[in-house]
Design goal:
single chain, 148 residues, alpha/beta, five-stranded mixed β-sheet, 6 helices, 7 strands, 21% strand
Length: 148
């Protein structure tokens, strides 16, 4: 019952925030990435700046979805769910690994851009460019439409 209440509240919260790009200046958006992509993604954020078109971009580094060269589906699922439970999520970066396909359906079902890339730098640049060009779209929709 509690999960249903949280889910319903989240849906209402997201629906209320889906206007024509009306995002408060200084609002935060989050990009989720496995530890293996975080270093490069963080370097791009430092170089280009964590402020984009009045938004603050936050990088959330996640545990690797593989253990001993094998997919760890429990970790992959937990990582994906963590991103979907965050209303500020705009993108989920993933390396091309056996676990990648598992997280994709979870993330995309929440209308969050799922980006499979061998380079955290390239993926983060894509997200930042989508946010810079968002126009009247919400940040999540802008990234999803341009990348997802």
């Amino acid at each position: 019952m509690r999960r249903l209440l949280v889910l319903c509240s989240s849906v209402l919260f997201l629906a209320a925030g889906c206007g024509e790009g009306e995002v408060a200046s200084g609002a935060r958006v989050s990009v989720y990435a496995p530890a293996s992509l975080c270093g490069e993604a963080r370097a791009v954020g430092r170089t280009r700046g964590w402020k984009v078109d009045g938004l603050t971009v936050r990088l959330v580094c996640l545990p690797p979805p593989e253990r001993n060269g094998r997919a760890d589906l429990a970790v992959a699922g937990a990582n994906a769910r963590r991103a979907t439970e965050d209303s500020t999520s705009v993108a989920f970066l993933e390396e091309p690994t056996p676990a990648a396909g598992f997280s994709r359906s979870i993330v995309e079902a929440a209308d969050i851009a799922w980006i499979e890339a061998p380079s955290g730098a390239a993926a983060m640049r894509q997200v930042i460019e989508a946010l810079e060009e968002r126009g009247s779209s919400t940040p999540r929709r802008a990234v999803l439409d341009q990348i997802g």
